[in-house]
Amino acid sequence: FVELLIPLVLPIGANLLLMRQREAKLSARLYTVLVKQLWSVERVEHGGVTMYVHRPLEGDDETIPVVVWFHAGGFCVGGACGAKDLETFNRLSSTVKVRWISVEYRLAPEHPYPAAIDDASTALEYALSKYRNVSVGGLSAGATLAWQAAVRVGKQRLASVAVLYPFLDPSMSSASYRDHGHRLNLGTFLPAAWAAYLGDDDQAKRAQTSYLRMTKDDLRAALEGTALIVLTAKADPLHDEGVAFVDALRDHLDLVHFDIKGGHTVAHDLFCDKEGGNKLFDAWAHRLQLRAETTPAE
């Protein structure tokens, strides 16, 4: 665990590529060792996007929920085969059997906005064309991609959207940034990540935040009948923008919000607050299972 944290405390700027390489190597190493315990994995290429379809070794059939998943990393770090994502679905599958599709979306700065959103939308459309009971989710920047892809291509076809610690606001002007940005150098990394992804393109910045200002009719067209599950942590720099996201949507969607305590050192983590994390996983599993039980067999 400590080894995985090392890249997060490196200087950013010129060392961003080194950070990405080291994080991906360490995380992939753990993933490779652990994934075979519970999952079979198939690599899929569609529309220029690489995905990894994970099927449970026990309890797999065509009726179980499918979750399209986007990894964290500020749009510029990480990869589809990561230890944290595996840990997430190991925990979720202890309550409800799922297939999950991890997406290798393109990373900035080599591929700035909107490359990641385009890849996310392509992957989600692929899943919706192939499976009957589809949800989407992600962590941090991946949560933002999950939301944006759901809005773009959902068309009232999604069972649920899991938006966990969303990385939404490039202005970084909230009180939670000022109060908690010192944690693991996130106050340095997060601005560097936005700069890599959006650069100085004001049009891209406006487009990025347009997903937070949708009308009621737009939301209904995309997500009516879809459960939205949002997780924030009080000690996270991203806390306030996540709460603002919830406040903007609460009256328009079937929404469940968990605002957990978070850990003393690492707030931006699904497993740093066991009690809060368990509530999230139980609610997520319930929504997935509910749709599975009401989806007619072909």
Give your account of this protein's structure:
The chain is of the alpha/beta class and 298 residues long. It has helices at 2-5, 16-34, 83-93, 115-130, 141-153, 175-180, 186-198, 202-210, 216-223, 239-249, 274-294; strands spanning 39-46, 49-56, 66-70, 99-104, 134-139, 160-164, 227-233, 254-260. It is built from eleven helices and eight strands. Helix 4 packs across helix 5 and helix 5 packs across helix 9 (216-223).
Residue ranges: pLDDT <50 for 5 or more in a row?
A: 1-14
Across the major sheet, the strand order is: 1-2-4-3-5-6-7-8
- Give average pLDDT, whole number: 86
Head-to-tail CA distance between termini: 44 Å
Give a quick summary of the entry.
By secondary structure, the protein is of the alpha/beta class. The chain has eleven helices and eight strands.
Question: What's the arrangement of secondary structure elements?
Answer:
Layout: H1 2-5, H2 16-34, E1 39-46, E2 49-56, E3 66-70, H3 83-93, E4 99-104, H4 115-130, E5 134-139, H5 141-153, E6 160-164, H6 175-180, H7 186-198, H8 202-210, H9 216-223, E7 227-233, H10 239-249, E8 254-260, H11 274-294
Parallel strand pairs: 3-4, 3-5, 5-6, 6-7, 7-8
Antiparallel strand pairs: 1-2, 2-4
Helix pairs in contact: 4-5, 5-9
List keywords for this structure.
298 residues; alpha/beta; eight-stranded mixed beta sheet; 8 strands; 44% helix; globular
